[in-house]
Design brief:
Elements: E1 2-6, E2 9-14, H1 18-23, E3 28-29, E4 36-39, H2 42-51, H3 58-73, E5 79-81, E6 85-89, E7 92-97, H4 104-114, E8 119-123, E9 128-131, E10 137-140, E11 155-166, E12 171-174, H5 177-186, H6 194-210, E13 213-218, H7 222-232
Parallel strand pairs: 2-4, 7-11, 11-13
Antiparallel strand pairs: 1-2, 1-3, 5-9, 6-7, 6-8, 9-10, 10-11, 12-13
Helix pairs in contact: 2-3, 5-6
């Protein structure tokens, strides 16, 4: 059992496998009080291994289920999961969200290459977004970050969200309110209880209202990065 701090929330993890502890090492904290506790049973791990679409070990399954529990509890604290690769550049955070297989990790890597020394991947797949008391949104690294393992334990302002789509041409357009809300709901994990789902809906609504959102139709090339940066740098 150990505690971590993610998105400024202290969580106690009752783990069975050391894999989870090692994964979370950069986020360990030693405060006596935690906001909530998560644990996964052996039966839950076995069931998940049967239903999972990809092969994994029991420790990996436990880790996945633990983060699922964490994310479903986070809206109680003004925090939600966003499936996205988040780039920090010049003190600003850009979240690139996409459906599986579209290439958000490739796009994030292109930013790192093209803007070497300036662009940092805060999290490559599963960051957390927090609404601060002043209403601003911040995006945080987490230990859970995709198969590439790209993450750092720090936060940055969420300046914009880009939804990636494959295309023959690189083009950036403003996303509609309805499309932004729908895509954000696809890219998060809802709590199981009605009150938690209501809190998540409020958070998503505030993001739609306060954070600019775009659709980037693109090829997997540097020109896509340049086109995106032309828009995002002006915000």
């Amino acid at each position: 059992m150990f505690r971590i701090r993610v998105a400024d929330v202290v969580v106690e993890i009752d783990n069975r496998h050391n894999f989870v502890f090692e994964k979370c090492r950069d986020y360990l904290c030693y405060e006596e009080k935690s906001a909530f506790r998560v644990a996964v049973s052996e039966a839950e791990v076995r069931a998940f291994l049967v239903e999972s679409a990809r092969p994994m070990t029991p420790p990996e399954a436990e880790s996945h289920l633990i983060y699922r529990q964490i994310c479903r509890s986070m809206p109680d604290y003004g925090v939600f999961l966003l499936h996205a690769a988040v780039i920090e550049m010049d003190g600003r955070g850009y979240a690139f969200s996409a459906r599986r297989g579209v290439g958000k990790s490739t796009h994030a890597s292109l930013w790192q290459t093209h803007f070497a020394g300036r662009a940092t991947v805060i999290n490559g797949d599963k960051p957390l977004v927090r609404r601060a008391p002043d209403g601003r949104f911040w995006v945080y690294g987490t230990p859970w970050c995709g198969k590439e393992g790209l993450q750092v334990n720090r936060k940055c302002p969420l300046t914009a969200i880009c939804f990636l789509e494959r295309g023959e041409q690189n083009a950036m357009t403003v996303s509609s309110v309805a499309d932004t809300a729908a895509r954000l709901m696809e890219a998060t994990l809802a709590p199981t209880d009605p009150a938690g789902r209501d809190r998540l809906a409020v958070l998503i609504g505030a993001v739609v209202r306060d954070v600019p959102a775009f659709t980037l139709t693109c090829r997997p090339d540097v020109e896509a990065v340049e086109r995106a940066y032309e828009y995002l740098a002006t915000l």
